[in-house]
Amino acid sequence: MRWEGGRRGGGVEDRRGMGGGTVAGGGLGIAVLALGLYFFFGVDPNTTTQIATQFGGAGEGEVQGQVGSPEDQAGRFVEVVGTNINDVWARQLQGYTPPTIVIYEQGTPTGCGYGQAAMGPFYCPQDQKVYLDLAFWRQMETQLGASGADFAKAYVIAHEVGHHVQTLTGSSQRVQQAQRAARSQEQANQYSVALELQADCYAGVWAKNAAAVSGGQVALEPGDLEEGMRTANAIGDDTLARRQGGHVSPENFTHGSSAQRVEWLRRGYDSGDPASCDTGV
Fold it and tell me: Per-residue b/e over 20-57, b at no fewer than 16 CB within 10 Å?
C-alpha cells in the first residue's frame, strides 16, 4: 500500500506513554462499549461490560493526549490513513465531521467506559473517537492469523471510522433502538451483524476512493485487497470461535461470518459507493 506521501491532517490524539485516568461516562456508555468491543477478539459483551465497569466507574475527567501529528512511523501511518479516510467521507457524506483517532497503550479512559487493548480497536459514539492500541496490529497477525500488510492495518481504521459514519447518519442509533425492542438475543445479534458488515463495506468504499482523493499518494497496490480480505476472513465470528476451540453458533454471531465479512468488504470496494452498503440497518 502506498501512503508515505499522503496528506497529514492532524486529528490524532496521542496518549502513548500516559497512565490511565478517571473514566468519562457510565451506564449507557459502558453498555455501548461492551457491544462494540467484540470486533476482533470475540470477547463476550457481558464480560466486556464487567471489565469496563471494574476499571471504569462513572467519574468525570478523561485523560487527554496531544492532538496533532505524531512523528514516529506508526503514528504517521495512522494520521495519513485517517486523513485520507476522512477526505473520502467528506466527499461522500454532506456535513461530514471527522472523528478523533486516539492511539494509546494498554488502557485508557473513553466516553464509553474504560478501554483496554485486549478489547481490540473500537469506536465510541459518546465522544466520537476511534481508539487504537498499535500493539494490536502485531497481535492481529501473530494471534489471529490475519495479514500484517499495511492495507490490513488501514482496514482496521477504516472499519472503525465506518462506525463513526453510522453515528452521523443515524444507523447506529436505529440499531440500538431495534436491539432494545428485539424479542430475543438472537434477533438483537442480527442487528449487530448488519451494522458490522456495513462498516466492513464502508471500509471497502474508502479503499476504492483512496487514490482519487489523494492524487494517488494513498493507494492500494497489487495484492493489497487480497490481504484485506484475508484479514476479514480471519476475524469472522465462525473463524474466531474455531480458533478459541468453541462451538460455532450462528445465532450468537455479532459481527458476521468470515464469508460475510469478505463479501461486504469486497462489495464496498467493487462499487466505491456507500449506497451499495445496505445491510438492512
Answer: bbebbbbeebbbbbbbbbbbbbbbebeebbebbbeebe
